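Long-time lurker, finally posting.

We've been working with SLC13 family permease (Microbulbifer echini) and I want a structural starting point before designing mutants. I don't trust myself to interpret raw outputs, so I'm hoping someone here can both generate the structure tokens and explain anything notable. Sequence follows.
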Amino acid sequence: MSISLIVSAIIFILIAARQWLPSTIRIWHIMTLGAIALLFMRQISLKDAFFAIDWDLILYLFSVFSIASALYDTGISAQISQRILSVKSPGLVLTSYIIVMAVCAAILTNDAAAVIGVPIAIVLAKNMKWGLIPLLITLCATVTIGSMISPVGNPQNILIANAGNFENMFVVFGQWIFIPALITMFLSMIWLKRFFKTSDIINYEATKDYKGEKALTQKWPALLSAALLLIFIFLASILHNVDGIYHPTIGQIGLAACLPIYIASHERRRILREVDWPTLFFFISMFVVTGSLLQSGSLQHFLKVSNIDLAEPETVAFVSFFASQLFSNVPVVEIYLNLLQERDTQTLMMLSAISTVAGNLFIISAASNVIVLQQAEKFGVKPFNFWQFFFLMLPVSIISVLVSYFWITWYAS
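Top reply, 14 upvotes:
Generated this for you. Predicted structure of SLC13 family permease:
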């Protein structure tokens, strides 16, 4: 067993045991320390670590985090909260929240939706007398499932869309994944709603209140950046296979979209400070850890000995789901794409769907889960722990994997 594999396992164990560690230790601390340990033990060189990081993805995440931070400062979270609460009916309030967050995840990525969704969850929990912990876990499920249907809904989908070279990536994702995502969302919400009034998990303590609206009068740069992001992504998907024109990367698209924020906004420094830097460090460190693991040859040796065909639907589903629990879904997809010889649409869609819904099982399985947890702590709220998340999300994981697998297998036949 390689040192890289051992370090990866230790990282997973420490995150699982985080509730017994000092409260000052965050998940990104654990991942970053793991990456530093591998560098010190020379399991990966600084040069190789640098090139193991998908900087285009990091730039895109920085851009959407900047836009999400700027949108939050405009008071959009407070405005959405007020609109949702005006519905009155508890069932419609929850449904409205789920739809808004799912759409936000599909458009701005699940990570950006998590940033916007946490303060809304705090307001809804207080006004509707719901438990904040199950509502935050519902947010995790919502942004994960909602992100399935879009090629820019989450980082792993971005990697797959780039690798697939689809004629129209939005149409392809919609055809293959929209129906299983819709079914999964409906069944998952029926399950999670049962826990909103459960006494043993509804209590939480907020050391500081969510104020809702910040003193930001110049709102147009944030709104313009959000609009530009949608326009640029839409144009890129349409012109993807047109020859003779420049095709920007997803990172370049994100940076171009957020330019109004950093050029015209008077609050550019505050927005820059409020970017979710811990999650960016988490991703950078995660790429280093998985780069070391890939460089060690452990996975390649295992595949060679076991004679596994990575293009088989059963293999794609099994490996992408269980590997995501140990290494998180983004680096798993990165590794899988590197090892995959044939990239047909069914294989890529199975990889996309299963690796995404795999994020429903453990906190570390998806970065958006980590963001929800860290954002809650940022507002002074004691969020869910590892085991609370696992026990509520286990049925969601089973449902989402089964529905996604059988639908994609049937659709391909």
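Before you design anything, note these points.
The chain has one domain: 54-204+211-412.
Residues 199-213 have pLDDT under 50 and may be disordered.
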